[in-house]
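Ticket #4471: structure export looks truncated?
Reporter: QA, pipeline team
Priority: medium

Steps to reproduce: submit the single chain below to the structure queue and open the exported record.
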Amino acid sequence: MKVYRNISEVGFIENAVVTTGTFDGVHLGHQKIIHRLNEVAESVSGQSVVFTFFPHPRMVLYPDDYSLQLLSTLEEKIGLLEKAGVQHLIIHPFDRAFSKLSSIEFVRDVLVNKLRVKKLVIGYNHQFGRNREGTYKHLKEFSPVYGFEVEEIPAKDVDNVNISSTKIREALNKGEVKVASAFLGRPYELSGVVVEGNKLGRTMGFPTANIFVNDKHKMIPADGVYAVRVLLENEQYKGMLNIGFGPTVQFSEKKIEVHLFNFSGDIYNKKVKVEFIEKLRDEKNFGSVEKLKEQLIKDAEIAQKI
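Actual output as written to the record:
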C-alpha cells in the first residue's frame, strides 16, 4: 500500500476507484465498503484509493471539545487499511480552508482534477463538503458532467456506518469489549509504551507493565479488569489488564496495567499492543492487599480459561 501525506504527493493512478471518509476504527461497515472498492477496482483494471484526513475534522472545527474519542490512532488506521487490501491511502491535512470546500469544489478539484477518479464508491448516507452538504444525489448529478461513475452501497450491506461506530463507543464505555469486537470484526486494541510504575504488583506475585497511551483522543474502555492478548516484539502473550485508580491501593491517577502470564523480563520503554478479549469484573476496594491478592489469583485463573 502506498501512503501519501498530502494529495499533492499523488502521481497518476490508472483508473482510480475512490472512496472517502474518516474510517475511524475500520469496522465491519468500513470493511464492506473497502471490499467492494477493491472488487470494482479489479473489474476495471484499476487501483483502489482511500482518501481520508488528519487530524480528525472535529479536532479542527471544534478545538475546545476534548470529548472526542477515536477508535483508532492514525498509525492503527494505516495498518488496518493496508490489511484490508487498499492500494493507495491518501491522508490529506484537514484544516479550516479544506473544511470550507463546497461539495462541487471537492468533487471537481480533488476527485476529478487531482485523482482523475473513474468510479466513486461510497457508503449509505455518506455526506461530504462544507457543512456536509454533499450527498449521493449531488454525486449522481455531478458524475455525468465530470465523467465518472458513482456507486452507493445500500444501508443493509453497510450496516449503517455511523450507527455502528456509535454502538462501538457505547459498548466500550460500558466495558462490553465482546460487543465492540463483534462490530469491529476483531478485538478492540490499543497501543502504548511501557513506563515505570510503583512496582506494587510484583510484591503480590503479579508484576505489571504500566502502559502509556500517547494519543489523548484514543478511546480507553471502561475501568475494570480484562482478559487480554498482548503483542510484544512480535511475540504474543496472554494476560490480564486493569484500567482505573486501584481503589484498594489508591493510585493518584488512572492507570492501565497489564500482567503477562508466563513472562519475565524487562520491558520498560518497549511498545506493546493490547487486544481486549473479555471483561472479568469492575474495579473494587477489597479492603486489604492480601484480599486483593486472593482476587488476582482468581482473576488469573478465569482469564487463562477465557
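Status: closed, not a bug. The export was complete when the record was re-opened. Leaving a note from the reviewer for reference: DSSP finds eleven helices and twelve strands in the chain.
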